[in-house]
Amino acid sequence: MDFFQQQDRARRQTRMLVVAFGAAVLAILVAMNLVALFVFGQVAGGEQGSVAPRSMEAALPIMAVTSAITLAVIVIASLYRTVQLRGGGSRVARELGGVEVDGTTTDPLRRRLLNIVEEMAIASGVPVPEVFVLDHEDGINAFAAGWSPSDAAVAVTRGALENLSREELQGVIAHEFSHVFNGDMRLNIRLMGVLFGILVLAVAGRKMLSSMRYGGGRGRKGGGIVLAALAVMLIGYIGLFFGRWIQAAVSRQREYLADASAVQFTRSPAGIAGALTKIGAATSGSQLVVNTEEVGHMLFASGLASRMFATHPPLVDRITRIRPGFQPEEFARATAEMARHRQARLARAEQEAVESARPEHALPGGLTLDADQLAERVGQPGLAQMLMVAGLLAEVPAPLERAAHSDEWAPELILFLLIAADPDLREQQLLMIAEAMGSDSEAQVRDLLNIEPDLPVRLRLPLLELAFPALRRRPERQLLDFMRLVDRLAEADGEITVFEYVLARLLNREIEDVLRPPRKMVGGRRSLADHADAVADLIAIFADQGQPDDALAARRARAAAADRLEGIETETAARTPPDWQDRLDAIFSELGDLTLDARRELVEALVRSARTDGVVVPAEYELLRLVAGVLRVPLPVLDGGDASPGEQRTN
Fold it and tell me: Looking at 130, 137, 162, 176, which residue is catalytic?
């Protein structure tokens, strides 16, 4: 099942969630009305316990008011919880006691975790998520949460850090990334809001009983109120029943799919199978100390000991699907192998090996990304791509890596990427920085320029992606001012290069997602033919930017892109206009309602265009990442052998 099919599945599950929520609310309304009729004496004492005809006129207003109040409580509670979760994945992680991993950490286990997450994110073409550790949890577990990849967070327990090898931790993180790619996170966070709404009555009933217990509540009137409170609480547990059922229905099959995606991602069945085996072997298993009632459906493994309405398949079933020859006796051997500090020693050795072995110039890439195989690769990059990204990140100078992870330096690092090589223009840009952010920021950018005056082109986008998690923690006003400054720096010389445009638009999209998380699933209802002119112009701009000095090669690239697209004519499209940036902005706005299939077809077309001459130049690679980002298609990095070697700073 590829990325686009997974997105369709997430849409179907969202509709199922709405239906299930409606069924739960209907059951609660019926029960609440029966309680209200009983309390107000409207239930007749007939043999069948039905509402007497003579009382129906009096019963209807009571039922209407009861239904309205109950429905309002449920809906308002759901909306309240959903608004609470507007902060995205980091809000969920902190509610569970998560501590964010500092990018400058020297702890070998946290460093290992951060490296794995960054490598997977950059290899996959999604923003690097925030990373958290649940320090107080001995169980082996993890989760990914957020409304979109731009506000996502990945969290693991201390037990996972201390007990899993790098390969096993990589399998767990790959499992969580599959939820990031496939729209599961948005469904999970909506499910948290829904569950809160239908469980709120149980909480209200308990509060009422508690207040009656300590507040007196004696006598006939008080007894009636106690009975009503007890009934409300019991009805609330009807909501709990439905909530558990919804969680189980939504989660179980997704876990099998995420396990399979993790194996495809890492090419290592032993990794995720080993992690699941250690869960079965560990004393704490995957159980969490904190209450996992709301979040049980988004965990890597079950957070509760109860098997009734389990949100995850049995461990043995999950392991045998990955390793058919697995025997439960292997749990005992895994117990003997687990040592509290063993993984810390291994992680420290791994980090030292990386530091001592800087690779030759690595390029964005991995396995060849053929347009015909794109659907299978989107959201599921291979192990070779991850290894290439690991090599690329190892090439980043240590001071720049520390700056990207630092709250105090990340904005200045992004500005550093926009500084021109021309001395006069550079001074003009530095003056803009001093005016907008102060002399300290200007000095920091100068320091970075002194450290790396000629940054290779291949390191620019990875550094931007590394810096984004630290940048997005800034207040909204600062982020908006920062976006305006980025636009001014890009326009300082009167013309905007492809990289400057791509950086500004990627940054704008990710910051917009953080400030206003998207509430809709990816995909609309329109085909490429419905936006034929916009698609033709996008292909023309892409081809012309990839072949700026060869009109014939640009025409061949256009033809290759349009070869399999019905209703798209690129032959008559004009050469790229001087205001191509404004045209691209309009195109991206217009293409927001494309179907998932149309998005796949468009990205495949641009890949064909880029590969026409066998060389993917930086402008093509950067525009591809931008288009994929705008369309919310996690595009894996392209083949390193196809990218041009190490150009220096040109903007």
Answer: 176
